[in-house]
Amino acid sequence: MGHLSTRPGSRPEQQFYEAYADAPILAALLRVLFWSKHLLFLSRCKSPEEKQFYLVSAARSRWSHRELHRQIMSSAFERAMLLDQKLASR
């Protein structure tokens, strides 16, 4: 895949570049997941933190495309953030 040194022209590639250009920590994980999963991140995730959550979770748990989609649609990120807030307030 190489590094992202030039700005690609097509829309999905441009979104991919913008989403990950300033995230060198995630560079190793980018090679682990298929392009279709990245398209899910780009189309469904709102914040960089949400993208990172699903990227790390998908790589760690080896989610299929279908499972990743299910996790995103069931708001796994939001639920995890609420749980963290609840635990921090104790």
Short description:
The chain is 67% helix and 0% strand. By secondary structure, it is mainly α.
Using brief descriptors, characterize the structure shown.
90 residues; mainly alpha; 67% helix; disordered N terminus
Descriptive account of the structure:
The chain has 90 residues and is mainly α. It has one domain (11-88). Helices cover 67% and strands 0% of the residues. The chain has helices spanning 11-20, 27-30, 35-44, 48-61, 65-73, 76-88. The longest helix has 14 residues, at 48-61.
Helices, strands, pairings?
Elements: H1 11-20, H2 27-30, H3 35-44, H4 48-61, H5 65-73, H6 76-88
Uncertain spans:
1-8
Please bin the fraction of helical residues: 55-70%
Radius of gyration: 14 Å
How large is the count of helical segments? 6
Oligomer: single chain
- Overall mean pLDDT stands at 79
Order of helical and strand elements: HHHHHH
Number of strands: 0
Ends distance = 44 Å
Strand content: under 5%
Largest sheet: none
Class inferred from helices and paired strands: mainly alpha
Q: Which term fits the overall shape?
A: globular
Counting structural domains, the number is: 1
